[in-house]
């Protein structure tokens, strides 16, 4: 067993760190208060390969491995959690299902604009009355000649506000339960694709989260992804990658919080010494660093399995569960180290805490991750 990064992985990480500090850091607070990442910046990231990270070069992607993509998401989240989830979702549940399950024609038509950042990918399974209980979705896709007509409402769609390419899960066979769900590639230019309510969120405010209404949205039947009834399989497979991405996002937020807390603890004095000299503060930092390292190891293990085409449902769920819960704790402790200034918008600690909070909710709540992990271990033991 070798626990070290390759030259390429280190190089990609450094390159992304440099770009984030130069191109993104100066704008983060503006993006958050405007609740928008300007689309105009996307081609810059696309040129770096960030919009088709694990897609092979033959399809125009960057062809990097999942381990590198984790380092990339972590570095982005260290600066902007909103941008990290935008890019993670685009890659893991936007591009990946098209690459893995798409026909050659679908790949030619939809992958390239996604990779070039001309179209942003999103994934819509959640509905106003169906979140964790995916099988309870109501959106329907009815075959009509060589088209499908989609009707329903999708809620909380990350990147939904940009308009681009949506991977939509809809029921094609109501009698078949979860096996009656299918996946479709839907261009937001399609008639009846309505970008609706924008969510007013606690954190990651620059990330575009919208409701999408499908009103007699007619799409060519060739936009079915895989076969009818494969929707759950496609969604669960894509979500394994998505959960690895959220874990990496949570780690990046935690890293940023600890870096700031260390800096502050060395500069601020109380009772005649630096905060960093108080053992209580040192213990908080030590616990935070240990949690970050544990989260990173779990995440990289899941990424390693994915790189080797091995099943990683349990490991991705463990990584997401641990890294997300750790990030809530780490960001709160880092805020505590700042005292009152942690509670002020003058410093980013309050933003980190708000941003970390969502990581235990999306791409499956912590409770759902525990269900996945328990199911896997009970099956195996
Ligand atoms: C910012 C943001 C972005 C999102 N982006 C997307 C996206 O791009 N695409 C998309 O499809 N969805 C997205 N979601 C939706 C997200 O995946 C759901 O919110 C999540 O799956 C939980 O569903 P819910 O909110 O309906 O909660 P519910 O399913 O109603 O659950 C409520 C609570 O009950 C718990 N619970 C539910 N069932 C069980 C059970 N069986 N056992 C134990 N506890 C249970 C849950 O863990 C939770 O704590 C996003 C959400 C947010 C907040």
List the helices and strands and how they pair.
Blueprint: H1 7-24, H2 28-34, H3 42-47, H4 66-79, H5 81-101, H6 104-115, E1 120-124, E2 140-144, E3 147-158, E4 164-171, E5 181-187, E6 193-198, E7 209-220, E8 224-225, H7 231-267, E9 269-270, E10 273-274, H8 279-307, H9 313-337, H10 349-357, H11 366-380
Parallel strand pairs: 1-4
Antiparallel strand pairs: 2-3, 3-7, 4-5, 5-8, 6-7, 9-10
Helix pairs in contact: 1-4, 4-5, 4-7, 5-6, 5-7, 7-8, 7-9, 7-10, 8-9, 9-10, 9-11
The structure holds flavin-adenine dinucleotide (FAD).
Flavin-adenine dinucleotide binds at residues 89, 122-126, 131-133, 156-158, 201, 209, 358, 361-365, 367-368.
Q: How confident is the prediction overall: mean pLDDT?
A: 97
Q: Which spans have pLDDT < 50 for at least 5 consecutive residues?
A: none
Number of helix segments?
11
* Overall CATH architecture of the largest domain: Up-down Bundle
Bound small molecules, by name, code or SMILES, are: flavin-adenine dinucleotide
* Shape category: globular
CATH topology of the largest domain: Butyryl-CoA Dehydrogenase, subunit A, domain 3
Helix content: 40-55%
Cα gyration radius (Å): 21 Å
CATH superfamily of the largest domain: Butyryl-CoA Dehydrogenase, subunit A, domain 3
Beta-strand percentage range:
15-25%
How many separate structural domains?
3
Order of helices and strands: HHHHHHEEEEEEEEHEEHHHH
Got a strand count?
A: 10
The helix/strand class is alpha+beta
* Beginning-to-end CA distance, first to last residue: 24 Å
Q: Which CATH top level class of the largest domain fits?
A: Mainly Alpha
Strand order of the largest sheet: 1-4-5-8
Organism: Candidatus Fischerbacteria bacterium RBG_13_37_8
Domain Acyl-CoA dehydrogenase/oxidase C-terminal: 229-378
Keywords: FAD, Flavoprotein, Oxidoreductase
GO molecular function: acyl-CoA dehydrogenase activity; flavin adenine dinucleotide binding
């Amino acid at each position: 067993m070798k626990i070290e990064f390759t030259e390429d992985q280190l190089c990609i990480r450094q390159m992304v760190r440099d770009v984030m500090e130069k191109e993104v850091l100066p704008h983060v607070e503006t993006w958050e208060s405007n609740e928008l990442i300007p689309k105009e910046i996307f081609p810059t990231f696309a040129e770096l390969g960030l919009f088709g990270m694990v897609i092979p070069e033959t399809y125009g992607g960057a062809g990097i491995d999942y381990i590198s993509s984790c380092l990339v998401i972590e570095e982005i989240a260290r600066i902007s959690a909103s941008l990290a989830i935008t890019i993670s979702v685009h890659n893991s549940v936007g591009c990946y299902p098209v690459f893995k399950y798409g026909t050659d024609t679908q790949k030619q038509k939809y992958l390239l604009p996604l990779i070039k950042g001309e179209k942003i990918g999103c994934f819509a399974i959640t509905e106003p009355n169906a979140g964790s209980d995916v099988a309870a979705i109501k959106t329907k896709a009815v075959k009509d000649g060589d088209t499908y007509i989609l009707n329903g409402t999708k809620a909380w769609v990350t990147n939904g506000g940009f308009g681009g390419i949506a991977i939509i899960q809809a029921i094609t066979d109501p009698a078949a339960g979860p096996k009656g769900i299918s996946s479709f590639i839907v261009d937001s230019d399609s008639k009846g694709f309505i970008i609706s309510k924008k969510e007013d969120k606690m954190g990651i405010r620059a990330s575009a989260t919208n409701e999408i209404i499908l009103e007699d949205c007619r799409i060519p039947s060739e936009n079915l992804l895989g076969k009818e009834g494969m929707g759950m399989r496609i969604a669960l497979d894509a979500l394994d990658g998505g959960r690895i991405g959220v874990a990496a996002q949570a780690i990046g937020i935690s890293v940023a919080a600890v870096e700031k807390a260390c800096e502050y603890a060395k500069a601020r004095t109380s009772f005649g010494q630096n905060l960093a000299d108080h053992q209580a503060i040192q213990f908080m930092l030590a616990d935070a660093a240990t949690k970050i390292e544990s989260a990173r190891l779990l995440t990289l293990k899941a990424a390693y399995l994915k790189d080797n085409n091995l099943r990683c449902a349990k490991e991705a769920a463990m990584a997401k569960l641990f890294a997300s819960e750790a990030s809530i704790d780490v960001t709160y402790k880092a805020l505590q180290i700042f005292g009152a200034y942690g509670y002020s918008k003058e410093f980013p600690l309050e933003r980190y805490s708000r941003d970390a909070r969502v990581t235990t909710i999306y791409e499956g709540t912590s409770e759902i991750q525990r269900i996945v992990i328990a199911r896997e271990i009970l099956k195996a033991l």
